Amino acid sequence: MNDEDDVMLDQDGLENENLADSEDGLEDAEERAETKIAKLRKELEHVKKEKQENLDGWQRAKADYVNALKRFEDEKKSAVELGTLKAAIVFLPSIDSLERAKGAGELPEGFSGIIKQLEGAAEKLGLKQFGEVGEKFNPALHEALGQDSAESAEKDDTITVVLEHGWMLGEHVVRPAKVRVAHFA
């Protein structure tokens, strides 16, 4: 019994020592794990913050890009409109001269085709002619160069004679119509 009891005691003693060693090792492992978890949490917070900063920067860049595309498109439209306007200003006097000659009956037969071509070109550019007898006078569209007497109050402030047609490009007046206006006294 003595030998067996010694072995058991030795085994119990070893077991007790192993338990004590394993508890110390477990506490060390838990501390290392907690330290590692704390470190990973800090790193995760840093990565989340960096991700949000990158996302915000990307969204700003995307918005800037979209705004730049819109601005470039607007500038392109403005440049086309300006070019059309300059071209119109240059060739409208030619149309006016041909129309005056046509009205006076001094236009050779072949020139009526030229007038149609010029009017077609103006239409393709988006130019619209305005100013007709009987229209209501509008100072934004018409330039009054004289007055005629009106027969009634209803004809007051209407156009009686169109001296030179006006032209518009979209919503912009290229040249106002030069007219005479009825005035009822």
Summarize the SSE layout with pairings:
Elements: H1 2-104, H2 111-124, E1 127-130, E2 142-149, E3 159-164, E4 166-169, E5 172-175, E6 177-183
Parallel strand pairs: 2-6
Antiparallel strand pairs: 1-4, 3-6, 4-5
Helix pairs in contact: 1-2
Describe this structure in words.
By secondary structure, the protein is an alpha+beta fold. The protein folds into two domains: 1-125; 126-185, Head domain of nucleotide exchange factor GrpE (Nucleotide Exchange Factor Grpe, Chain A, domain 2). It contains two helices and six strands, in the order ααββββββ. The protein has helices at residues 2-104, 111-124, and strands spanning 127-130, 142-149, 159-164, 166-169, 172-175, 177-183. The strands form two sheets. It has a three-stranded antiparallel beta sheet with strand order 1-4-5. A three-stranded mixed beta sheet has the order 2-6-3, with no helix packed on it. A hairpin with a 2-residue loop joins strand 4 and strand 5 (172-175). Helix 1 packs antiparallel against helix 2. The radius of gyration is 46 Å and the shape is rod-shaped. Mean pLDDT is 85; it is low at 1-17.
